[in-house]
């Protein structure tokens, strides 16, 4: 007789949920790879080209999500959007980015060295359009050296 889900240990249910998430990300990635090849698009050769492509950003996001490391891309994109901001909303947007990605208790904290983090903390008193430039550059470099090469390797389907 079936006892239902309540008979299954919660640790098994958590593992099953994790596997479901990973499989859905894998399916999304495979869908993108096949679309990419079907359209005979050239694989992105550098991160800058990828980030200038809506489809490229979407595929990179799917890949990073599957590795549970999407925060660097999200921070970079938030900085790009922030640069185009102006006026009285600038300080609020800067604080939002800081709280979400920079603050040591941030829910999506990015990996920045202490010097960059401290410098940025000092700039938060009077933020300008280029407040996050150095931090954004460091995160771009990190993605270019680390996650982007793994992303490129993941696209190679035997």
From TrEMBL:
InterPro entries for this protein: RGS, RGS_sf, RGS_subdomain_2
Domain of life: Eukaryota
Native source species: Phoxinus phoxinus (Eurasian minnow)
Domain RGS: 46-154
The protein, known as: RGS domain-containing protein
SUPFAM superfamilies, per database record: Regulator of G-protein signaling, RGS
């Amino acid at each position: 007789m079936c006892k239902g889900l309540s008979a299954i240990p919660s640790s098994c249910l958590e593992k099953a949920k994790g596997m479901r998430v990973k499989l859905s990300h894998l399916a999304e990635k495979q869908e993108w790879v096949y679309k990419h090849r079907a359209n005979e698009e050239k694989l992105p050769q550098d991160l800058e080209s990828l980030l200038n492509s809506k489809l490229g950003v979407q595929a990179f996001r799917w890949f990073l999500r599957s590795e549970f490391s999407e925060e660097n891309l999200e921070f970079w994109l938030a900085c790009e959007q922030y640069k185009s901001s102006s006026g009285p909303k600038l300080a609020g947007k800067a604080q939002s980015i800081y709280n979400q990605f920079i603050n040591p208790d941030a829910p999506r904290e990015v990996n920045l060295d202490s010097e960059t983090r401290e410098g940025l903390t000092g700039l938060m008193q009077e933020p300008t359009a280029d407040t996050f430039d150095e931090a954004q550059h460091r995160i771009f470099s990190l993605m270019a050296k680390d996650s982007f090469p793994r992303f490129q390797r993941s696209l190679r389907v035997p």
